[in-house]
Each structure stands twice: as structure tokens, then as C-alpha cells.
């Protein structure tokens, strides 16, 4: 029997699920679907963003709807236009083998009259944003007085966005005897108030613990001086060549500025905030989903409802005002069983906020260092080598080979390899050769280092493709090297290789252990990174995080491919777009 069929779902939904490639229900689906199918009850379901909540309420709703009646029977409220459209599309996909079931999306930025006409034609399910729904109720364009089911999706986000009064007003137009299903990632006081006022003895299910972050997301923080915040962001991007990320800023102004700076510096970036028109937002999101944009810089409000697959990193350029908001930010990555990374760039005065976040999400942060220029050169060089090794040969080049061979015939194989890789290596090396150390010394640092601060950094040729993340690799190294609990530090895992540090006194032992070390028959190579002599708090000669010395480079260096669409560049220096006290005190109207 199909695993979804075992939950009690009918043939039509099971057929759609199989066609969509779903293999097994998620935890929230396993817990919620049987209850909602078999009982007429209210429910409060707490589950991290990205755990499959839409199917958890969507499957039972479709099963319970009378598709032969054209009366509106279900209302789903969601915080943003993007999420509203996403839920609508998913409900349509789930019910594709029930042709008489119609779902209509109701949201701002589109014709309210067209949406009203769609509902009048017969819509058993309405998916709506609170503002537009309330507007339609006030204009008597929709009747929800006889609905059987009301679903509040991402309830905490709707309330954080200021929809408390709208939700109260909308629910007051619904019948008392309906079932209310509330789905939320966190349980702040306002959500509890809604539950107590409009729900009757709800069943509560929790996936994980209340307000916790996803177990698939590792949490890191980097301590820098405020003026180096933007330079640190660029380093983190360059150290992760395959990054596909959302970068969070607190205000619209900072969001636009950071995006403009990234575009000016050659990154595929764009801004997403409340000052963009709906058409601009749609274009940005389309480009991001198609990976034409590699780094999406967004405010918390604008990013609500973003559901894009395979986001590798969330970067907190600034921590949010509300600690609970961090849960939503980090939930954009680490979805569908995949691992993700949430990075936080903080100044020394903000480290206490990290401790507060740890208490809320019940997970520990690892303090890491901003990579040096030498580390970035190594990462980029080996990334290029792996890309070349995996590349499929385009035989259209065959006709050009005689002429190419003639040009290259005087060089040996080793010389050709050196010349080829020197093109890319030299770009990064020249860019970063005088780059300063961006790491600020925090009170938490130093426990992984000897009293004289001597540390050696190693390169090892195993990484994510071998099944490691930073925690499992650190455990493997501790077990293999037998050096003690805190002897291995600064573990940084890439696709096919990694870096780590130990105290320099262990150097001879480590090199000897890995001299002829194999994993499943493959030799594990380890060598000392050229950057191993860098000590904490050290400073190079350069004045900025990218070796620009206060102005744009004359050689036009671009760390990434040409900038994608979605923003515009501007004149700037490279000391960064840091968040200072004046910006932190901006009024809340700028935080959209």
C-alpha cells in the first residue's frame, strides 16, 4: 500500500501525489492528516517552515470538500501574495484528478473585480491574503458565512506583519461551527490569543519543539567590526562558489544599498523589499527561482512566503529586531531533507543576541572566522578544477583543436595546466593579496588554540560529496586524530574538499596519520594550507576587505559572473554598507 494511501487519502489524491514524485509523508503530514481526515476538530500545528505544511492541510481539505457543490467551503489565509499563489498552485496540483474542484487566489496587486468574478463562477476553496480578503468582504464581493473550514497558514508571520485586526474581522464573518486549522512555525502570544478566541478545544501537534529551528540547518556566526560588514559578506560569498542564498537586512534602505553594492562588484544579486512594484517583485522572484540571481537581498516582510528549492545559505547581514523572526529566516534553507547553513554577521556588541537566539531555537551556533584571501583562492581554484573534471566535452570544439594544438605545442602538460589555472587563480590572488583580516576578537574565541596562539590550517580532499557536513567531519577528525574534544576547530566543508585547524604542535602527528589513509579504498590527502600562519586578530597591509585601498580597482576585477537583473549599481567605495546606530534606530515603516 502507498504510504500516503495508508494515511487514509483517496485514490484521486494518491494518484496526484505519485505523479508529483512524493515518496513518503513528512512528520507534520503523518501527524496531521489522519486527525483532520477522521475528526471534525480544530487543530494547532507547530512545524518549522518548509516541512510540508501545505500538503498537511491541503490533502484533508480536498478530501472533505464537496466538489459537486459550487459553494465556497474552505478559506485559506496566508501572509503574502507569493505564498498565496504558491498554495493555490499546490492545491490545484493535488486536486488535478478532481476537475470539478476549483481554487481561486485572492490577493492585492491584481484586479479585485476579476477575482470576484472568478469566485462567483464557483470556487469551493479561496486562498487569500488578509488585506485583500477584508477588502472584498467590506465590498460584499464574497460570502464566507457558510464555510466549513478555515485555515490560517504561517499564522505567526501574518500576525508579525500586522494583520491581527484583519484576521479578527475576517473570522468574525465565518460561522461558529466551522473547523479552524492553524499552522505556524512559532507560537507567540498573538497566535495563542487567536487560538483561544476562535478555536474550540483544538488538538495540538508539534513537530520538534516549539519555536525550534530545523535540524537540517547549521548555525554559524562571524564577528567583525561594523565597518567591515559588507566586505565580510563578499568574502563569505567568494568562499562558497556555489552559493544560492537569501541575505536578510532589517530595512528597505539597507537592502537596496547592499544589493546595489553587490551588483556593482559583479555578483548576481537583486533586492526584494516593499518599495518595489508588484511587477518588479515578480520579475525578481522569477529570476531567483531560475537561478539567474545567486544572492537575493531581502527584508523580512518582503521575503515572507518565499519557497524556493535548494537555497544553500541564509545570511543574516543584520540580526532581526524580533528573535523569533530568525526562525523564519533560517527556515528558507535546509528544506526537503537537505542541509543548509544560516550565517550571521555580527559586531562584538551583538554577540549577546546570538545567545538569545540560541535559547529560542534550542540550537548552538558555531563561531567561525571570515576566510582569508588565501583560503578563498584555494577554494576557488579547487572548485574550478572540480568543475572542469565534471564537465561534459562539447565536440563542437573538435574543429578548432588543430589550431589550438599548434598554439600550445611548445608547452608541456604541466605547463599547460599551470597556465590554465593561473588565469583564474591570478584574478583572486591579485584581488586578495593585501586583504586584511576582517575578524574581530570576541570573548568566546581562543578555546581551540594554544596559549601562544599558534595554529595550523589543513586542506583535506573530502567534503560534502562524501557525505560530510562540518559537524560530521569534525567528529570524524576528532575520532581519527584522537586529540581531545576541542582540538579541531574552524572546520569548513566544501563540495569535494574541506579545511580545519589544530594547534601547531600536532602537525607532525596529523601528517603521519594521513600519510596512507584511505576511506572505502580512496586515498585521503591532507596538506598544510598556505594560510596556516594566520593568527587571530592579525592584520595585513590592505585597508579594506577586498584589497581595493579605498577605490574601485583599475583592472575591473569581478569575483562572479556579470550581474543579473533586478537592481542597479551605484558609486561606492569598498568599506561596505555597514549598519550604524542611526540606521538601527530608523522607524519601523522602513522595515518592509
From TrEMBL:
Keyword match Coiled coil: no
SUPFAM superfamilies: P-loop containing nucleoside triphosphate hydrolases
Gene3D superfamilies: 3.30.70.330, P-loop containing nucleotide triphosphate hydrolases
Domain annotation DEAD-box RNA helicase Q: ranges: 2-30
MF (Gene Ontology): helicase activity
Ranges of residues in domain Helicase C-terminal: 216-376
Chain segments carrying region Disordered: 529-592
Family designation: Belongs to the DEAD box helicase family.
Swiss-Prot/TrEMBL keywords: ATP-binding, Helicase, Hydrolase, Nucleotide-binding
Basic residues: bias regions: 583-592
CDD domains reported in the protein's UniProt record: DEADc, RRM_DbpA, SF2_C_DEAD
Name used for this protein in its record: DEAD/DEAH box helicase
Amino acid at each position: 500500500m502507498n504510504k500516503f494511501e495508508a494515511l487514509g487519502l483517496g485514490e484521486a489524491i494518491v494518484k496526484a501525489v505519485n505523479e508529483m514524485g512524493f515518496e513518503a509523508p513528512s512528520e507534520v503530514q503523518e501527524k496531521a492528516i489522519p486527525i483532520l481526515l477522521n475528526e471534525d476538530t480544530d487543530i494547532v500545528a507547530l512545524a518549522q517552515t518548509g516541512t510540508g505544511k501545505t500538503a498537511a492541510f491541503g490533502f484533508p481539505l480536498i478530501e472533505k470538500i464537496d466538489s459537486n457543490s459550487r459553494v465556497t467551503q474552505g478559506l485559506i489565509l496566508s501572509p503574502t501574495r507569493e505564498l498565496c499563489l504558491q498554495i493555490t498552485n499546490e492545491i490545484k496540483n493535488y486536486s488535478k484528478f478532481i476537475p470539478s474542484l476549483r481554487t481561486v487566489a485572492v490577493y492585492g496587486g491584481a484586479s479585485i473585480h476579476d477575482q470576484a468574478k472568478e469566485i462567483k463562477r464557483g470556487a469551493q476553496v479561496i486562498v487569500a491574503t488578509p488585506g485583500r480578503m477584508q477588502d472584498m468582504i467590506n465590498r460584499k464581493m464574497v460570502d464566507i458565512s457558510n464555510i466549513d473550514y478555515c485555515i490560517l497558514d504561517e499564522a505567526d508571520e501574518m500576525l508579525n506583519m500586522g494583520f491581527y485586526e484583519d484576521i479578527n474581522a475576517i473570522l468574525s464573518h465565518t460561522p461558529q461551527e466551522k473547523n479552524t486549522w492553524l499552522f505556524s512555525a512559532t507560537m507567540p502570544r498573538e497566535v495563542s490569543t487567536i487560538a483561544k478566541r476562535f478555536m474550540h478545544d483544538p488538538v495540538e501537534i508539534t513537530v520538534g519543539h516549539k519555536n525550534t529551528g530545523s535540524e537540517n540547518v547549521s548555525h554559524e556566526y562571524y564577528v567583525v567590526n561594523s565597518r567591515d560588514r559588507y566586505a565580510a559578506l563578499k568574502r563569505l560569498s567568494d568562499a562558497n562558489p556555489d552559493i544560492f542564498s537569501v541575505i536578510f537586512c532589517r530595512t528597505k534602505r539597507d537592502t537596496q544599498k547592499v544589493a546595489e553594492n553587490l551588483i556593482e562588484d559583479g555578483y548576481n544579486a537583486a533586492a526584494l523589499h516593499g518599495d518595489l512594484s508588484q511587477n518588479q517583485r515578480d520579475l525578481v522572484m522569477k529570476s531567483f527561482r531560475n537561478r539567474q540571481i545567486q544572492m537575493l537581498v531581502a527584508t523580512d516582510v518582503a521575503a515572507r512566503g518565499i519557497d524556493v528549492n535548494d537555497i544553500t545559505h541564509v545570511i543574516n547581514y543584520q540580526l532581526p529586531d524580533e528573535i523569533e523572526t530568525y526562525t523564519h529566516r533560517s527556515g528558507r534553507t535546509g528544506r526537503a531533507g537537505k542541509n543548509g547553513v544560516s550565517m550571521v554577521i555580527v559586531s562584538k556588541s551583538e554577540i549577546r543576541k546570538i545567545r538569545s537566539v540560541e535559547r529560542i531555537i534550542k540550537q548552538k551556533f558555531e563561531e567561525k572566522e571570515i576566510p582569508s584571501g588565501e583560503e578563498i583562492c584555494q577554494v576557488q581554484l579547487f572548485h574550478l578544477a572540480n568543475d572542469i573534471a565534471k564537465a561534459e566535452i562539447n565536440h563542437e570544439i573538435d574543429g578548432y583543436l588543430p589550431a589550438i594544438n599548434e598554439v600550445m605545442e611548445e608547452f608541456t602538460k604541466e605547463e599547460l595546466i599551470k597556465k590554465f589555472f593561473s588565469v583564474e587563480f591570478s584574478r583572486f590572488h591579485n584581488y586578495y593579496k593585501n586583504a586584511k583580516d576582517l575578524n574581530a576578537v570576541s570573548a568566546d574565541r581562543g578555546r581551540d588554540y594554544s596559549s601562544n596562539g599558534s595554529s595550523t590550517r589543513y586542506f583535506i580532499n573530502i567534503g560534502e560529496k562524501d557525505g560530510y557536513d562540518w559537524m560530521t567531519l569534525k567528529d570524524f577528525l576528532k575520532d581519527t586524530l584522537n586529540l581531545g574534544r576541542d582540538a579541531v576547530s574552524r572546520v569548513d566543508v566544501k563540495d569535494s574538499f574541506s579545511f580545519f585547524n589544530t594547534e601547531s604542535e600536532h602537525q607532525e602527528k596529523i601528517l603521519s596519520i594521513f600519510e596512507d589513509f584511505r576511506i572505502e579504498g580512496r586515498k585521503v590527502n591532507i596538506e598544510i594550507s598556505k594560510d596556516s600562519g594566520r593568527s587571530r586578530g592579525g592584520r595585513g597591509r590592505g585597508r579594506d576587505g577586498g584589497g581595493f585601498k579605498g577605490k574601485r580597482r583599475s583592472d575591473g576585477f569581478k569575483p562572479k559572473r556579470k550581474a543579473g537583473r533586478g537592481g542597479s549599481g551605484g558609486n561606492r567605495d569598498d568599506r561596505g554598507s555597514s549598519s550604524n546606530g542611526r540606521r538601527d534606530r530608523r522607524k519601523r515603516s522602513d522595515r518592509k
